[in-house]
Amino acid sequence: MKSSHLLAVSLLATAIPACAAEPIAGKWLTTERDSIIEIGQCGGVTCGTVLHVFKQGPDGRRMLDSHNPSPELRDRPVQGITVLTDFHDEGSDWRGKIYDPKSGKSYKAFATRKPDGTLLVQGCIAFICRSFIWTPTR
After folding, report:
1. I want to staple 122 with a disulfide (CB 3.0 to 4.6 A). Which of 22, 81, 110, 137 is the partner?
2. What is the pLDDT of residues 49-66, one digit of tens each?
């Protein structure tokens, strides 16, 4: 009797698909087409790092994190910084934090892979969100 019960439980477990969000790992061209963000694993969680910046800073050199709230970080290049942190699969989407080097602020964030292959990224304060569409790149 026990073995038939275990068989029924195991069949039920395999019949119910796990609810997981579409993977978001990869390289993404931002909405403004000014940088590429690489999303992948960072210490057991998903994060996103600025892989490449296409624009130069106001002085004609590389873009700096000049609006960072920490004065000691304002001279670091934007290329190479982590802008998506602590992203976790929440079933229908990915949730974490996003840092905006243009403002120096961090926001609650959501990311969802769309059927057309793009990535919907939202940065939110309370219930007000700003949405961006990132496109896959190589």
Report:
1. 110
2. 999 999 887 778 889 999
